[in-house]
Amino acid sequence: MKKFSESVTKSILTGVQPSGVITLGNYVGAIRQMAKMQEEYLSYIFVVDMHAITVPKDPKELHQNIRSLVALFIACGIDPEKNFIFLQSENEYHANISWLLECNTSFGELSRMTQFKDKSKKNVNFKAGLFTYPILMAADILAYDVDYVPVGIDQKQHVELARNIALHFNKTYGDTFKLPDVYITESQTKIMDLISPDKKMSKSSDNEKGIIKMLDKPDVIRKKIMGATTDSECLIKYDPLNKPGISNLINIATALSQYSIHDIENMFEGKNYGDFKRFVAEIVVQELSVIQEKYYQLIDSPELDKILDENIDIVRKIAKDKFLLMKKRMGMYR
Ligand code: TYM
Predict the structure, then answer these.
(1) CB under 6 Å to ligand 1: residues?
(2) pLDDT in tens, 111-152
């Protein structure tokens, strides 16, 4: 098993919320990246169910979504032989570490998180957990002394906060954490909404037509891409500022194929938007069909529980050791 191979020296870690809707953005921004990197790194990938409950969730749905996400991870190429796949809530040391970090993070620094500002604006009755969410994320990361955290650009600020928290803790109490680096592989990794290409493609979007879900049927995917917002220029050129819709479709196509931005601009010189959209749609359909087939084989299989059971004891031990070290450093012992 590669998970235990001594030749692997660097590690990566990422988490994904079980929101029920995993978008093409999540796939490109995180899951697929992990599937590529698993060959080279010791890899942790987990379902962040405790982050999910920072906004109200229906318990039955949450339960189904957790299982579905594990199946999707594996269908997307996350190999259980090469990754530690687990549920965040099954490793209670994340929450324990989070509390110690909470007591070492300033309110001001946390108030600067842009995701909190956006989300709290949408619901004035937000819960305290929404505010402290980035600290739990820091705990997720710092528990394992990982080298890199592959995420979409929207999570960059949170990973930087984790790094700052670690730096501050090390300075105050002595060396305790490795400083993680954010890993954003492609500069244009942020996949935008198809209808409002000035916003990221988000599972919480109000308009279904703007998001591609990993389990959308081929015809639905085609319809959504054909209906994507573009502009009236009829020019297939990469220019995110002035042509956000076309640039987003180019990003989607380059992310899921061997073509570069330049290849696509050349291939579609003088062609119309309809041709280009059909091309992008087929790339997406092809990629997602393979994933969906594997997903439906896995979702009701006992194999899923076996994988989760096998991993949890190992990750609990690692996070527990970190928690005990933190407590010791902070003077919390008899
Ligand atoms: P979440 O569940 O919102 O998203 C999971 C991953 O998908 C990326 N992503 C995108 N990337 C590109 N374009 C998009 N439109 C897009 N939408 C989402 C996100 O950047 C993320 O990498 N707080 C995190 C989960 C988390 C985590 C962690 C991540 C909890 N603990 C520790 C890394 C390490 C979140 O809510 O991601």
Answers:
(1) 13-17, 25-26, 28-30, 48, 51, 137, 140-141, 149, 151-152, 154-155, 158, 189-191, 200-201
(2) 999 999 988 888 888 999 999 999 999 999 999 999 999 988
Residue in this structure with the two tokens 């359909």, named with its chain if needed? 285
Write out the DSSP string of 69-128: HHHHHHHTT--TTTEEEEEGGG-THHHHHHHHHHTTS-HHHHHT-HHHHHHHHH-TT--H
Instruction: Give distance in angstroms: CA of 13 to centre of ligand 1.
Output: 12
pLDDT in tens, 97-115: 999 999 999 999 999 999 9
Ligand 1: residue whose CA is nearest its atom 7: 26
What CA–CA distance (Å, rounded) separates 288 from 224?
A: 14
Query: Please, are residues 194 and 229 in contact by the beta-carbon 8 Å criterion?
Result: yes
CA distance 25 to 47: 16
pLDDT reading at 1 higher than 60: no
Residue at 242: amino acid letter: N
Q: Which amino acid belongs to residue 319?
A: A
* Residues in CB range of 147: below 8 A, 6 or more apart: 10, 11, 12, 41, 178, 180, 181
Two structure tokens written together for 314: 């190992």
Phi, psi of 150 (to 5 degrees): -75, 120
For ligand 1, atom 33, the nearest C-alpha belongs to 14
Amino acid at 186: E
The terminus-to-terminus CA distance of the chain in angstroms comes to 40
Mean pLDDT of 215-235: 96
Active site residues: 119, 200, 203
Instruction: Tell which atom from ligand 1 comes closest to the C-alpha of 200.
Output: 15
What is the chain's Cα-based Rg? 21
Angle, in degrees to the nearest 10, between helices 273-298 and 59-75: 100
For residue 44, the SS3 value is strand
162 with 117: CB under 8 angstroms?
no
**Which residue's entry shows tokens 């640039």?**
247
Question: Residue 148 pairs with which residues in a beta bridge?
Answer: 12, 181
